[in-house]
Design goal:
The chain contains 2 helices and 8 strands; from the N terminus they run βαββββαβββ. By secondary structure, the protein is α/β, with parallel strands linked by helices. The protein has one domain: 2,3-Dihydroxybiphenyl 1,2-Dioxygenase, domain 1. The strands form 2 sheets. A 4-stranded mixed sheet has the order 1-4-3-2, with helices on one face. A 4-stranded mixed sheet has the order 5-8-7-6, with helices on one face. The protein is globular, with a radius of gyration of 14 Å.
């Protein structure tokens, strides 16, 4: 990972909590901490992705989460849609980015473009 943490502004903390807890679980990312109106998601006990409610408008941004394999991306996309996200790019290869770039895109409740990506080539033991 190349960042320590990211803070994303949301308009509805409960709606976003449900969306991110559901969608990110497929990537092994879980809710770790809640404090001062903010929710911290991460792995290994360290929150690195924070969502916080703020009355100020934030232009939607794009965040890409690393996935361990293509199957987890498929699961992320399905879970995100079921949690209220909108499809912004079904799971699949994006060879125009890189030969093994497999990703999926969803828009969260505030319109942020959330992606899961795996750059690993497939192996015989991996789905897809």
């Amino acid at each position: 990972m190349i960042f320590d943490h990211i803070v994303l502004t949301v308009t509805d903390t409960e709606k976003s909590k449900y969306f991110y807890a559901t969608a990110l679980a497929a990537l092994g990312i879980v809710l770790i901490k809640e404090e001062d109106g903010c929710l911290g998601f991460g792995t290994n006990g360290k929150p690195s992705f924070w969502i916080c409610k703020d009355g100020k408008f934030q232009k939607p941004i794009h965040i890409a989460f690393i996935a361990k394999n293509r199957k987890s991306i498929d699961e992320f996309h399905e879970a995100a849609i079921l949690a209220g996200g909108r499809d912004n790019g079904k799971p699949g290869l994006r060879e125009h980015y890189q030969p093994n770039y497999y990703g999926a895109f969803v828009l969260d409740p505030d319109g942020h473009n959330i992606e899961a990506v795996c750059r690993l080539a497939t192996t015989s033991g991996q789905s897809h």
